[in-house]
Design goal:
This protein has 285 residues and is an alpha/beta fold. Helix content is 30%, strand content 19%. The chain is globular and about 55 Å long.
Length: 285
C-alpha cells in the first residue's frame, strides 16, 4: 500500500483529500502546517506528499526545500496544491516539487490528482516541464495578487538583511530563519527548522534564554534591554519583539554581532505571529 502525507492548513482540503485517497487504497496521514509535517516525517516515510503553498509555521516552498535536502526523501514525489497559482508564478521545480495542481472545484481537482498520482507511480518518468494542472478552470483575484506582491517585497527585505532573523513559536520551535541567521549559527536550514531555539545555546546561556522565554508575559512590545549570549562562538545581543495575532504567541528576536563590542539593534516583526531573532555578520572596527 502506497503511503501519502497531505499537508494543508484548511480542514476541508484535508477531509477531501483523505476521503478521496483512502477510497483508492492509499494509507493517508495529514498535517496542518509545515512544522507539523516535519514532526510526522520524523516517524513516517510517505511515497507521495501533497503540500499546500501558503501555510503558517513553515510554508510549502520552504518545506519542499527542507524535504529535498533529507536523503531519505530523495525519491519521495512532491505535489504542490496551490490556491495562488493564478495570481503568481509558481516555479515548483525550482524548490524541489515534482508536480503542481491549482486548487479549484473538487470535482475538477479529482482528475488532476489522479493524473499526478499516475505519473508518481512511474519513478522513471521525466519530471514535469513546470506546467500547472487546473489553471484553465480559475480566474485571478486582484486582492490576492496585491497581497502576494507585498509578501514578496518583505521576503526580499528579510533575506537581504545583514541581521540574522529567526521566528519561533509559542513552544520555542524555530519556523523561520533568514540566510544571515543560518550563517551566524553555523547550522543548516533543515536542521534549524522545527528545532528548539534554546538548544542553540549552552550552559548558563541556555538557562538564561530559557528564563527569558518563560518570563515573556507582555507580548505587545519589544524588550527594552538586550540579553547577551553566545552562538557559534560569537557573542550576540538578543532583542525580543513579540507579535500577537490573537492566537498563539510568536516573538521576534534580533541579534547583532560586532568584533569588539555589542550594540543593540531594534528588531522588526516578520508580519505574522512568531519569535524572530536577528543576527548580523557585519563587523565593527
Amino acid at each position: 500500500m502506497k503511503k501519502i502525507l497531505v499537508v494543508d492548513n484548511h480542514p476541508l482540503i484535508l477531509e477531501f483529500m483523505t476521503t478521496l485517497l483512502a477510497g483508492e487504497d492509499y494509507q493517508v496521514k495529514t498535517a496542518e502546517n509545515g512544522l507539523e509535517a516535519l514532526d510526522v516525517l520524523s516517524q513516517y516515510h510517505p511515497d507521495i506528499i501533497f503540500i499546500d503553498l501558503v501555510m503558517p509555521n513553515i510554508d510549502g516552498e520552504t518545506l519542499c526545500r527542507v524535504i529535498r535536502r533529507k536523503p531519505q526523501f530523495e525519491k519521495t514525489y512532491l505535489i504542490i496544491l496551490s490556491a495562488i497559482a493564478v495570481e503568481t508564478k509558481v516555479d515548483f521545480i525550482s524548490f524541489g516539487a515534482d508536480a503542481c495542481i491549482a486548487k479549484g472545484p473538487f470535482g475538477k481537482m479529482k482528475k488532476h490528482i489522479f493524473d499526478a498520482l499516475s505519473e508518481a507511480a512511474d519513478m522513471d518518468l521525466k519530471k514535469e516541464s513546470g506546467n500547472i494542472r487546473g489553471l484553465e478552470d480559475l480566474y485571478a483575484r486582484e486582492i490576492t495578487g496585491e497581497l502576494l506582491s507585498i509578501k514578496r517585497h518583505f521576503d526580499v527585505v528579510l533575506k537581504s538583511m545583514t541581521e540574522g532573523i529567526m521566528e519561533i513559536t509559542d513552544d520555542n520551535r524555530i519556523i523561520f530563519t533568514n540566510p544571515a541567521a543560518i550563517s551566524l549559527s553555523g547550522i543548516s536550514e533543515e536542521r534549524l527548522l522545527a528545532s528548539d531555539f534554546r538548544e542553540l545555546f549552552k550552559g548558563d546561556d541556555r538557562r538564561k534564554i530559557g528564563a527569558l522565554l518563560a518570563g515573556l508575559k507582555d507580548h505587545s512590545a519589544a524588550l527594552s534591554d538586550g540579553v547577551e549570549a553566545v552562538i557559534n562562538d560569537r557573542e550576540l545581543e538578543i532583542r525580543v519583539s513579540p507579535v500577537n495575532s490573537g492566537k498563539k504567541r510568536r516573538d521576534c528576536y534580533s541579534y547583532r554581532y560586532y568584533r569588539k563590542k555589542l550594540l543593540a539593534y531594534p528588531s522588526a516583526a516578520k508580519g505574522k505571529n512568531g519569535i524572530c531573532r536577528h543576527f548580523s555578520s557585519w563587523y565593527g572596527s
